[in-house]
Design a protein that fits this description.
Helix 2 packs across helix 3 and helix 9 packs parallel to helix 10. This protein has 799 residues and is α+β, with helices and mostly antiparallel strands. The chain contains 17 helices and 35 strands.
């Protein structure tokens, strides 16, 4: 690493705290300005710990919630790069949630910086500040070596945990650590310099997950493994009707179960109030162990009240949504004059796509262990929002936030579910009622039937074509259950938040464009679901682009590329903006098409489909080769994923995220749907909420495109556009549909491209979409199935 000028110093907004660890090692922590002048709310209190031990070990703290996205590895890589240490010499330790007292309001500030996991922001948030933390530590060590050698610091360099003198002498970081800890920090001035990209030795290198061995050998500890002495295990019988209450309970038999210690009631949310704590009223059984608590819960005899929504069903919900599409909604975006363009069109293409409710179904169900004392609290739980948990515990108990300790074990999946802390609220309520430390555990049935579900909605799309088959208008109307329903803190959000993507492609690429939202009532909680907006919208958009391509006699990929046009930046107001670059979206589409051999002649019974999408600042495309047997069985033969996400910290981690997200998207598209009957969720476990089985999972080929722009995170985004959707086509005068069976279309199955269903056909099927959820695409699995069905015998095609 090049020399660090002596004139450089620390920024005005942060300083490097220096001290000795108990073992005599150098401990460095980047904190906010003195006396808390820069608070967590100001967004300036960023940093992480570095510990250099006498034996030469470099211990780096990982601040983020590790939910499987790899930040326990990638964030420390940023620090290690600028510290200039060899990665094999690094030991990573998970940091707890950190707040420290401050003089100014609100009375505390962040010790480590952003620690949540949501919106794929860990890498963008840490890209500068965590590298700077490493660079500042290196700067301090250089200053120490300069004093030892009586040499100007700007003549010194670093290499692999050593400071290097121009004459070749070296001093190890471990040797320098004790003296470095005694140095006074210089007056705040400019930031120390960071490495140029060409100097990177760790960033950009494929790096294994730091605790991979612990995971595969069962050593890694998750929230569900947490235990403290005297804590009882609690299972809760929750009201199956949202907003219902406990009418009566007979707990006599439950108390007779060996090991059961207490039975307590917990209240539910007030009807109509924001859902900022627990989701349901219930009865908790506390016992010495999980099995006793479960048997005790089974022995309860509870009568529940049935609120007005107790008669609702998925069928009724869909009827309400269909009726809503006949009404006018709120305009999210309007360009040009879509009505005028439609009236002047030679042909109009129209389709409606149904997006079902979806559960998160994390492999580790929610759980929380809490120990409440009069003036302090300890929480150990698998979280995505530790700050939210801290605020909630404070609000429910009055305990100062700086006296609430929150430990962050590895999380067995998040997908947005753990952005909500309802299970933490349950633990607080049970602990308060029982007067003892408790560990609230959920079963899979609890998890699937008590969730913040992805919204339900109908996507109605209409496209106008002129006499030459050119697209002249695009209208995307959504009738959906609003995401902001009873969501705390979202009162000022647009009504269509999470349900309509006003600036998503092809917005800005069609002269007349409409995005409209019509709300549909449903008294079931909704929440963020892995790349929530793209996974809700991408399927409909990408599928409909294929409809338009067929109607206009245009190749589906050519249509997309023509719409994207010359590389340029379009405004994008949602998460991942402020711009969408058409050239980068075209780049991943071309990459996926080229990798899979789009357009080549395929064997009978096979087809290829592609789709692409922009989400959370990243660009991803998928290409699938799909086979359908004579019996109608579908098999994904090959799957290609191309991604452009900016500067890549850990290519191996990114590939793993793309693979996992792709398979998750396939699973969702092919199998998953939450349905309601008599006001209750029907699904209860994996037999009826069937995740993709290993035998059906294809290999996923990941192609990472080089990119110049700003660093982006990739997590859900990398999620395959889940969609799980049913699709129906509606005809109208002048509408363009594929020819009837036996006819010929612009793309024959033998050419390896896609065809929608026969003229007038109505299909009801699940499909894959895009979504990088980033993921994008698989939207075409649907179209591939249609075109292959055209060549099958009538019995098989009707399946």
């Amino acid at each position: 690493m090049s020399a660090v000028p002596d004139t450089r110093a620390l920024s005005r907004r942060a300083f490097l705290g220096v001290s000795l660890s108990a073992a005599g090692g150098l401990l460095l922590a980047l904190r906010s300005g003195a006396a808390g002048q820069e608070t967590a709310a100001a967004g300036e209190a960023l940093g992480a710990f570095i510990r250099i031990e006498p034996d030469g070990r470099i211990v780096i703290g990982a601040r983020g919630c590790e939910i499987g996205q790899g930040v326990k590895t990638s964030l420390p890589m940023l620090i290690a790069e600028e510290l200039d240490v060899p990665w094999p010499a690094v030991t990573v330790e998970q940091l707890p949630y950190g707040l420290v007292a401050a003089k100014d309001p609100p009375g505390f500030t962040s010790l480590y910086g952003p620690q949540g996991a949501g919106g794929s922001t860990n890498i963008p948030d840490g890209w500068h500040d965590l590298r700077l933390a490493g660079a500042r530590a290196r700067w301090l060590l250089i200053q120490t070596a300069a004093r030892v050698w009586e040499t100007p610091p700007d003549r010194l360099t670093t290499r692999e945990a050593h400071v290097v003198h121009p004459d070749g002498r070296t001093l190890g970081y471990a040797e320098l650590a004790p003296r470095a800890a005694t140095l006074a920090m210089p007056a705040p001035a400019a930031d120390v310099p960071l490495k140029a990209k060409g100097e990177y030795r760790i960033i950009g290198q494929p790096t294994r997950v730091v605790d991979a061995r612990d995971i595969v050998t069962g050593v890694a500890a998750y929230g569900i493994d947490a235990a403290i002495p005297s804590a009882l295990t609690a299972l809760i019988a929750r009201c199956p009707y949202f907003d219902g209450e406990v009418a009566s309970v007979d707990e006599a038999q439950a108390r007779r179960v060996p090991g059961v210690r207490q039975v307590v009631r917990i209240p539910g949310p007030r009807p109509g109030a924001p859902l900022d704590r627990n989701l349901a009223a219930g009865v908790a059984v506390l016992a010495d162990d999980f099995w006793s608590a479960r048997k005790g819960r089974e022995a309860l005899r509870i009568t529940w009240t049935r609120p007005s929504g107790a008669a609702d069903s998925s069928a009724a919900l869909e009827r309400r949504a269909t009726a809503a599409l006949a009404a006018s909604g709120k305009i999210a975006r309007r360009d040009g004059n879509p009505d005028e363009a439609r009236n002047a069109a030679a042909r109009v293409v129209e389709a409606v796509y149904v997006m079902p409710l979806l559960a998160h179904a994390t492999m580790e169900p929610p759980n929380a262990l809490i120990d409440l004392k009069p003036k302090s609290a300890l929480l150990i739980a698998s979280l995505q929002s530790p700050g939210g948990a801290s605020q909630m515990i404070h609000a429910m108990t009055g305990i100062a936030r700086t006296d609430i300790e929150i430990r962050l074990p590895r999380v067995g999946g998040g997908f947005g579910r753990r952005l909500q802390n309802d299970f933490v609220a349950e633990a607080v309520l049970v602990a308060q009622a029982a007067g003892t430390p408790v560990k609230v555990m959920w079963t899979r049935e609890d998890d699937l039937q008590n969730d913040f579900y992805r919204p339900f909605g109908l996507h109605q799309l209409r496209a106008s074509l002129d006499a030459q088959g050119r697209l002249t208008s695009w209208a995307h109307r959504v009738a959906a259950t609003p995401r902001k329903y009873r969501a705390a803190g979202m009162e000022d959000a647009a009504d269509w938040v999470g349900c309509v993507d006003p600036d998503g492609f092809p917005a800005g690429c069609v002269a007349s464009y409409l995005a409209e939202f019509v709300p549909v009532d449903l008294s079931i909680p909704r929440g963020w679901w892995r790349a929530p907006l793209p996974t809700f919208c991408a399927f409909a958009v990408e599928s409909f682009l294929d409809e338009v391509a067929l109607a206009s006699g245009t190749d589906p990929v050519t249509l997309r590329l023509d719409l994207l046009g010359a590389p340029r930046e379009l405004p994008y107001r949602d998460h991942g903006g402020p711009i969408l670059h058409t050239g980068r979206l075209a780049g991943v589409l071309n990459s996926a098409a080229g990798a899979i051999g789009y357009g080549r002649k395929l064997p009978a019974g096979r087809g290829i489909g592609l789709a692409s999408h922009f989400t959370h600042g990243g660009y991803v495309a998928h290409a699938l080769e799909v086979a359908v047997s004579q019996a109608g069985a579908l098999e994904v033969v090959r799957c290609v994923c191309a991604a452009d996400v900016g500067e890549i910290v850990n290519p191996l981690g990114l590939e793993a995220q793309m693979m996992g997200a792709t398979l998750d998207g396939l699973s969702t598209a092919l199998e998953l749907e939450i349905t309601v009957k008599d006001g209750r969720i029907e699904q209860s476990n994996f037999p009826d909420y069937r995740l993709l089985r290993m035998g059906a999972a294809p290999d996923v080929e990941v192609h990472l495109l080089p990119s110049i722009p700003a660093v982006r995170g990739r997590r859900d985004g990398d999620t395959l556009g889940r969609a799980g959707a049913r699709q129906r086509h509606f005809r109208r005068n002048g509408s363009a549909h594929p020819p009837s069976a036996g006819g010929r279309s612009a793309q024959e199955p033998g050419e390896g491209k896609l065809m929608p269903p026969a003229n007038g056909a109505r299909t009801s099927m699940r499909a894959v979409t895009a979504g990088i959820g980033y993921l994008s695409p698989l939207a075409q699995l649907k179209s591939t199935t249609w075109s292959l069905a055209r060549s099958l015998p009538p019995a098989a095609a009707a399946r």
